[in-house]
Amino acid sequence: MDVSLEVSFLGGPAPQRGIGVVAPFDFALDRELWRWVPDDVSLRLTRTPFVPVEVSLDLARLVSEHETLGDAVRALSVSEPEVIAYACTSGSFVGGLAGERAMCEAMTRAGEVASLTTSGALLEALEELGARRIALVTPYTESVTGALEEYLGEAGVAVTGRAFLGLTRHIWKVPYRSVVDMARQAVVGAADALFISCTNLPTYDAIPQLEAELRMPVISANQVTMWAALRRIGVYAVGPYQALLMDTAGQHEEPPPAPAPPPPAAPSAQPEEQEGWT
User: Fold this and answer.
1) Cα gap 22→229, rounded to integer Å
2) Exposed, middle or buried, 236 (CB in 10 Å: 0-12/13-18/19+)?
3) How many helices and strands (H and E) does the chain possess?
4) Which of 13, 37, 91, 138 is least surrounded by CB atoms within 10 angstroms?
5) Euclidean distance between CA atoms 17 and 240, whole angstroms
């Protein structure tokens, strides 16, 4: 018996909306980005050229040069994404607020498509959550962590506590346990939220655990990048038990209709049998 499947019955692949992502050359967490993305959206990733520099302020400047970003964006534009995200925290905060805005403008000119950065998305997420005081976790050295604090301070966001690892390489290999331990160290003052920096630091599965333990919103570099990029095209990011995603969805959803009142109970033919019911 012929049990072959007629391909024409499948209808072809479902249409996909596209988000372009420019990542630093050492980015190793492609799969983590995809976890926030619904099935009808595809990520189109490219990387900046390799430079023989460890994670530092110098590297942040090199991977965020406008010419480098322009080349990456033009390559991505061939696949016609609806928005392009630069997925690098340090590369997008190293020039301060003005530098971040200039990067977005340069990418938009190069690709003629709306563009955003991780550090810009971070400020959007903090505004969405109403958070002006945050605890901060980074894998960076002290100098890079300090530059992030300066960027946040310029935006009017106070850092109430921080923890950092001092790493200059292999950040994607940091286990969740280290992320959780740093978070506990950082939350020492009154904070509205916790931010975990660096797109090369795994965070997806740690966020719900930390939110339950710390009783505050927890946001991360990859999370806010995907959240902001998807929001630009009118799509919700997906992720269980993450305050940023639940709060955002809740603001746009219509309240459920009130349930209809139950019909009146029919009179019983034997009221004595109802004794003792509640």
Assistant:
1) 12
2) middle
3) 11, 8
4) 13
5) 22
Helix 118-129 and helix 221-232, axial crossing angle in degrees, nearest 10: 80
**Tens place of pLDDT for every residue, the chain, 278 residues?**
555 556 555 666 778 999 999 999 999 999 999 999 999 999 999 999 999 999 999 999 999 999 999 999 999 999 999 999 999 999 999 999 999 999 999 999 999 999 999 999 999 999 999 999 999 999 999 999 999 999 999 999 999 999 999 999 999 999 999 999 999 999 998 999 999 999 999 999 999 999 999 999 999 999 999 999 999 999 999 999 999 998 665 443 433 343 344 444 444 444 333 333 32
User: In what helix (H) or strand (E) does residue 220 lie, and over which residues does it extend?
Assistant: strand 218-220
What number of residues does the chain have?
A: 278
To which residue do tokens 């990418």 refer?
A: 107
Measured CA to CA, the distance from residue 213 to residue 231 in angstroms comes to 28
Tokens of 270: 């034997």
Sign of the Cα torsion 235, 238, 244, 250 reads positive
